[in-house]
């Protein structure tokens, strides 16, 4: 006993010594603050104390959350492995969230913009968003960390910042004007630069020199095309050049800037290529340098090389859908490696794809071609390079013809210098004389390469995040990425460029590797390297150039394309109402291109902007419409539609009447309330009004190849050869009707009077608006969405000061609406605009004159519906198509264009989204004899204010709600899943599809009854949104009940996932009551309520949602067991507060299951199990946790010590009388249920409900399991 006491005393003394040491360490930490921060130092000390004195580990209160781009299965698996094995100083759970690469920047901006309290701790991002994100104060300053060793897994590790190429060291910094110094804000993970790739074997065999200028590239490409080689033996001549033609790959911007760069930038990186730094602050000047001979030269070269590239359909889908734009050129890299083309420009993909090429070892690589001429910005003319004008140019030997007229040289192949060496040209054939000239190169760092950043706002996890990303950027992990041939990561460390043997050991050819690394390293060392844009609306600017290339390659002249580019940029930058955007743009532009010129940043070049410093202002809004940039794209005509002036016209210029066919579209137009006008106006006035109306429509009709079938009074029946032509006519007609010289008497009428509207601006602190074009959803940018936002969740426009459309009207905002309020999208639109007077600033004219409604229907299927008159040569239309178009028109309100579903399906919306909105208006029954059909409202973006005045459709019955009925603001979201849907589809696809169709029909009908809004229905998923959580809960419960009553296929009921399960319950009288628990498909549902960002998708016209509530609801659903309806405490409390009577009437009860930490959700969530009291509920609740034997034993002991019924009160008391913490519930609940009730405890068809030991369940056990049995004698 004494020995035991001595041992205990010794243990206590040791603990006291440990504690004293810990106190001393804390005091030392206070006197000498750790560079990582006081909080982190305390965390380290506490970890050491617990580990040394108590032999246990200390962990943070939650996992480290990172947001990473989805870059393909191989890279994603690598990131997951790295996350799972991260050790600091013990194993820390790292939870990565993978986002499509093309969307990750917009997601990061969304987190910072809305100041989400549970945002990610760090990100990997596309550098194009650096300027905007830095302006949110989102980046942690990493300057003090990059040279500090860190410990991972007991090993000291170093970032070795000095090994990172100086170019990437420079571009990882951002200028802090307050501190007047550069700070490091990102860690490089990737190195992007465009290079020229060519086949060495071909060039040597045909004595062709490596082209040094773009004119020489064109000459060489012309020669290669003339050789008609077929070296890959595919029976098709190898193409001379690799240019990506597919618009979906978004490569044309990068390729065009690569050509343009050496003509525009010749005085260092701070000179810029696209925008003139000296003009970005001048409101009287357009800073975009597009109207000049350099741009014309670049477009000419691009078009000629494009014609020599593989003939791939421009509308085809990109191989790298979802990739960041700079990384989407993999398709051309594969074409080059396969021998389809013999020369091209690209990133490191070309080199990596060549690793497995049949032509391995024959890869030639050179820095990007340059130019002997540059644009003199003072005279706006191309002039020859001189050592003074082009200080970074190199002197080379050329033929005189090359220096005389480069544009003439580019038109043919004569004078191409020939040699067997890559860099030294011999005398070319022909009579020209050799001379010397100065060659200006400007290699283009397209995209910039992926970087990692740490969220400055999640302070408590800053150190973990820094160490995780430093480990990711460190030497060994960097090698794992850059050597992977499938990854988009290219070399960025000095070791990557010098250690050739490591590349060779990884399987790359030594000659190919040397050529690639030499060219890449030389490019990064070039002081004239071109930095890609990192400014607000970079995505928009790229889209403008992409669209210009579409024009160019579709038949527009170079001069027309240049003019359109200039007009577009002029309207963006010279609008006086865009001053805030221009100031912010200027600040960020200088910060990102003048990285090597501190003096420029500190002096007057920047100036003081009114609101440019610090974070952007904030603006709470109810509905966000496309930015001025997107609308100016439309106004300038940059999105090109090839329109042959003689299309659908005969030799005399008259439109050929459309015939029978699925694309023939009938448009019926009418003036609203026309029958009432004769009572309000004199006949002469009505006749003048009709003449103006008819003249306007007929004037536009020929332009859109439309044919006038008939007209009577105010009504026209017009026929078009395609739905697109009909839509374009309708859209232009609605805009032109505002300009008609209507009689004053008509304009004096109430419904015909001019109506101006104005966006309601908040009087509180403003939030900056989201860049509507950031983060594309292939093939449509997110600019193709209207955003309906809850108060306080404004969309950020990167400096656009709240204006849309050419009219300059202000963006609407929601005033004095509580953040918890729920409203329909229609109500949001009404709140967003107010009526304005003619003299108000920022007004928009949305109505003027008679309000004309139009209906469109596509498809004339019978020749009997088309009548040709020999007497007057006219063609008229009748039959079902005209009847449908007229019914659609009569369902519309004045000023509205409605489309039938057949018309909507045939529209090329991917090419129209930036001009017009198409909104789903729900499913309607228009006439007794007509079937139900979906209607769509088409709206010119310049008239978006009309959304505030769209009344209900005048149909017989609205069967299904439309987007105007969709809830926005504080929304309840329900995820309903069919249990085992994929298993059933794999088992018997036909039977499963039949069952899922029944499921969709039943839950859809229940959804209509509960006034819910269908968001998505795919296979076994049904996603719905509700204004009230009570409706969502009742909908889910009623769907469970409905599943039992359906007429399911017998084969389905024989499957164990769908068989009938019955509970037999004895009564006091000795009778047995059988209750069907499951029969057919089984469901589980998760419900949550919260603020959402609602977006009207351009392709579907339906409302989509994003926000934390979506993830929470999905996770709650995944946590549910078969038959369960689970909801968050927010949903439950709101349902019981706002709709308690409905819940009580339907006998809905809720039991708190405790607080849970769900995957991907930072905060713990209290979850309620909802059920109807009269029903038997399924017993088990699933969990993603695996319980250890020790935990299992602990819970068995707890149950043994605390017998008794369930406590449905607080989250901490779930079973028995003793307090149980939320963590215990999370760890133990499922295993306890599994221990007491096996999956086979239910009898099949008939039988009793038993425990494992065979005894019937008693009231205590059923209460513990959350099961309610029918009352005795019921």
Automatic annotation (TrEMBL):
<dbReference type="InterPro" id="IPR029787">
    <property type="entry name" value="Nucleotide_cyclase"/>
</dbReference>
<protein>
    <recommendedName>
        <fullName>Guanylate cyclase domain-containing protein</fullName>
    </recommendedName>
</protein>
<dbReference type="Pfam" id="PF00211">
    <property type="entry name" value="Guanylate_cyc"/>
</dbReference>
<dbReference type="InterPro" id="IPR001054">
    <property type="entry name" value="A/G_cyclase"/>
</dbReference>
<dbReference type="GO" id="GO:0009190">
    <property type="term" value="P:cyclic nucleotide biosynthetic process"/>
</dbReference>
<dbReference type="GO" id="GO:0035556">
    <property type="term" value="P:intracellular signal transduction"/>
</dbReference>
<dbReference type="InterPro" id="IPR050697">
    <property type="entry name" value="Adenylyl/Guanylyl_Cyclase_3/4"/>
</dbReference>
<feature type="domain" description="Guanylate cyclase">
    <location>
        <begin position="972"/>
        <end position="1117"/>
    </location>
</feature>
<feature type="domain" description="Guanylate cyclase">
    <location>
        <begin position="665"/>
        <end position="723"/>
    </location>
</feature>
